[in-house]
Amino acid sequence: MDLKKTSAPVNTVTYNKALIEKPTGNVYEAITIMAKRANQINSEIKKELTEKLEEFATYNDSLEEVFENKEQIEVSKFYEKLPKPHALSVQEWLDGKTFYRNSNK
């Protein structure tokens, strides 16, 4: 997932209910699918951020050696400015990029 190329909004947006429920015909099913996808996206982002911050980890027990790492701060700021996972999930849903299946059908 390329987080830099997403068109998901960073701020709160009101969506058309008809557009949300159009693929499934049921707004509750659509919201459930988007919520599950948001959890997946959140896990991916968390894993990616943890891997990047591991590069800066120091394993010293001394409190005197704590210092600010500019690269670490930049990485953290980048992830703070990203759209939230639910916004990314809704954008994927509206763009038709979310694959789903109903096992009952």
From TrEMBL:
<dbReference type="GO" id="GO:0006351">
    <property type="term" value="P:DNA-templated transcription"/>
</dbReference>
<protein>
    <submittedName>
        <fullName>DNA-directed RNA polymerase subunit omega</fullName>
    </submittedName>
</protein>
<dbReference type="GO" id="GO:0003677">
    <property type="term" value="F:DNA binding"/>
</dbReference>
<dbReference type="GO" id="GO:0000428">
    <property type="term" value="C:DNA-directed RNA polymerase complex"/>
</dbReference>
<dbReference type="GO" id="GO:0003899">
    <property type="term" value="F:DNA-directed RNA polymerase activity"/>
</dbReference>
<keyword id="KW-0240">DNA-directed RNA polymerase</keyword>
<feature type="coiled-coil region">
    <location>
        <begin position="35"/>
        <end position="66"/>
    </location>
</feature>
<dbReference type="InterPro" id="IPR006110">
    <property type="entry name" value="Pol_omega/Rpo6/RPB6"/>
</dbReference>
<dbReference type="Pfam" id="PF01192">
    <property type="entry name" value="RNA_pol_Rpb6"/>
</dbReference>
<keyword id="KW-0175">Coiled coil</keyword>
<keyword id="KW-0804">Transcription</keyword>
